[in-house]
């Protein structure tokens, strides 16, 4: 049984912000001046499983860096938008390339740059420590903080409702 009040059988895609959603909202910096993000392995498992189950997977972030690209590309993300200036424009590009309708997408964001997308998607979701504005429009607020299992929480619920969680290929390695 899902805690999400939306018809999860409609979901065909997951799109995520990175900082504050898939990584904690505190970012350490390397002595070189480059940000170093950490990612949750349980999120990673759920994301690669969703990709194997033919869900369209996307990242739309204002952040940049080869580490972000490599991490999510290795998990099967087909659409990775870095240095996003106006996220809604990249989201519209994602919809066009994926041939999806907004109601078929779960978008997970945590702050003001995510607001426009969250107003149009079928399932806007966020971590428990998202901004007040984002929480006010989210259809689902995870009990997890950003970087600590939000992706796993949401993907697991959707896949369970669609009977895709504990399939034989769920046990194969990444």
TrEMBL record:
Its cofactor is Mg(2+). Mg(2+) binds at residues 17, 110. One of its GO terms (molecular function) is hydrolase activity, acting on ester bonds. Keywords: Hydrolase, Magnesium, Metal-binding. Substrate binds at residue 19. Pfam families: Hydrolase_3 (PF08282). Homotetramer. Belongs to the KdsC family. PANTHER family: HAD SUPERFAMILY MEMBERS CMAS AND KDSC, N-ACYLNEURAMINATE CYTIDYLYLTRANSFERASE. This is 3-deoxy-D-manno-octulosonate 8-phosphate phosphatase. The lineage of its organism: Bacteria, Pseudomonadati, Bacteroidota, Bacteroidia, Bacteroidales.
């Amino acid at each position: 049984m899902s805690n999400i009040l939306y018809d999860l059988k409609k979901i065909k895609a997951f799109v995520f912000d990175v900082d504050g959603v898939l990584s904690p909202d505190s970012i350490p910096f390397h002595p070189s001046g480059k940000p170093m993000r950490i990612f949750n392995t349980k999120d990673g498992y759920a994301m690669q499983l969703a990709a194997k189950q033919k869900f369209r997977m996307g990242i739309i972030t204002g952040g940049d860096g080869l580490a972000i690209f490599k991490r999510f590309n290795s998990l099967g993300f087909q659409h990775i938008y870095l240095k996003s200036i106006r996220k809604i424009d990249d989201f519209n590009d994602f919809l066009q390339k994926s041939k999806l309708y907004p109601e078929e997408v779960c978008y997970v964001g945590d702050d003001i740059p995510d607001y426009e997308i969250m107003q149009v998607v079928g399932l806007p979701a966020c971590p428990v420590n998202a901004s007040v504005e984002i929480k006010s429009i989210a259809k689902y607020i995870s009990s997890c903080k950003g970087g600590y299992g939000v992706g796993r929480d949401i993907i697991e619920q959707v896949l369970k409702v669609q009977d895709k969680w504990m399939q034989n290929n769920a046990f194969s390695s990444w």
